[in-house]
């Protein structure tokens, strides 16, 4: 069980980084939302020791922040 919890944040980070390759046709705001969600997921996983709730919560918060950063004023 411990190995799974240590492995999960790295797996999430790898999936996020690989999926960012599909961002070629996205707008700047969409890209920032995806990047924010990825960074938030990794941060949430690290801060909560690989907790699923922490990872999902971090992704949600990061996605919202990434979306709002590039919003037209």
Detailed description of the structure:
There is one protein chain. The model has no long low-confidence stretch (mean pLDDT 82). Helix 1 packs antiparallel against helix 2 (28-47) and helix 2 runs antiparallel to helix 3 (52-69). The protein has helices at 2-19, 28-47, 52-69. The longest helix has 20 residues, at 28-47. It is mainly alpha-helical and 73 residues long. It is built from 3 helices and no strands. Helices cover 77% and strands 0% of the residues. It is flat. It starts with a helix and ends with a helix.
Q: In DSSP terms, counting alpha (H) and pi (I) runs of 4 or more, how many helices? A: 3
Which sequence of SSEs, written as H and E, runs from N to C? Answer: HHH
Shape: flat
Secondary structural class: mainly alpha
Question: How many runs of DSSP E, i.e. beta strands?
Answer: 0
Portion in strands: under 5%
Proportion of residues in helical segments: over 70%
Q: Mean pLDDT, as a whole number?
A: 82
Largest sheet: none
Poorly predicted residue ranges:
none
Concise overview:
This protein has 3 helices and no strands. By secondary structure, it is an all-alpha fold.
Which properties best describe this structure?
3 helices, 0% strand, 77% helix, flat, mainly alpha, 73 residues
Tell me the layout of helices and strands.
Blueprint: H1 2-19, H2 28-47, H3 52-69
Helix pairs in contact: 1-2, 2-3
């Amino acid at each position: 069980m411990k190995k799974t919890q240590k492995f999960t944040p790295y797996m999430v980070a790898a999936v996020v980084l690989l999926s960012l390759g599909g961002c070629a046709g996205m707008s700047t705001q969409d890209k920032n939302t995806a990047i924010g969600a990825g960074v938030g997921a990794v941060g949430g996983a690290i801060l909560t020791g690989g907790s699923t709730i922490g990872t999902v919560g971090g992704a949600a918060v990061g996605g919202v922040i990434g979306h709002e950063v590039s919003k037209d004023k």
